[in-house]
UniProtKB/TrEMBL annotation:
GO terms for molecular function: DNA-binding transcription factor activity. This is Transcriptional regulator. Coiled coil: none annotated. It comes from Paenibacillus ferrarius. Pfam families: HTH_11, WCX, WYL. InterPro entries: CBASS_pafABC_assoc_protein, DeoR_HTH, HTH_11, PafC-like, WCX_dom, WH-like_DNA-bd_sf, WH_DNA-bd_sf, WYL_dom. Keywords: Transcription, Transcription regulation.
Amino acid sequence: MKLERLISITYALLNHEVLSASELAEKYRVSQRTIYRDIEAICAAGIPVVSYQGVNGGYGIIKEYKMDKSLLGSNDIESLITLLRSTATVFKDDKTMDTLHRLQTIQNGADMPSLAMDLGSWRANNDDLYTLRSAITSRQAVRFEYINGKDERSFRTVEPVSLLFKYYAWFLHAYCKTRKDYRMFKLSRMVNLVVLPEVFHRNHTTPASELSVENNREEKLEDAVLHFAAGSCARAMDCFYAEDKRFNEDGSLTVRVVNPSGVDWLAATILSFGEDVEVLEPSSLRELVHAKIRKILMRYEKV
């Protein structure tokens, strides 16, 4: 209980110029003597609390310790807090949390945030992200086995530079000592990640924006029309949220996929719906899905 009060008093002092001992005692329903001891404990923790004499005197935190509210607008602060909170769900970063707490002290009001992101809610790669972030900070090389888009396996030793979230996936921007050039590696295709004791001193200046991200984009396919049975509409909308959609009277859903990114990706997505989807157009895609279904059936001839 005392710890919670100390933290609350600290934030109260950060949000106000001066607070008297009587105000604090009334707010926390304790004696002024208890407030004096709490202020001493806060000072002992390294937070610079100063006392002001006079009629309007009391306690406050020196201005140099606070962030200047005039530097950032309310929208700027909210955006920064949202970004820091989202990364805090992935990375165990005490400095980030400290910055987040200090930004919250200059946030006006207690309104609910208009935007929230939780990058850590999907737990895939979280351990590797933390490991790579630590390696980047300590400038240590890492080694892993990698499988590229052509299913080619190789062992890579790299100098990690930065992490990038793009195309709904995490990528590592690194200098590959095997290829002697900068590369982008998709974290979901990395296995057996190991941080090496080797510390690199190379000054990496090539930005991630200059490197292409392997995204398996194949030859263009003509628009596809898919019919989803009632009961599978929610998942179909998750998969094809940006496409043209039309609900039918029987509760089914028709989706027109404009300029699909790749035949294999689209066919695999269609097959994941099983009997709840039918390809209406084009005939080439319908034939491809039919051929894949026949191959699947051949694998399960013996049950």
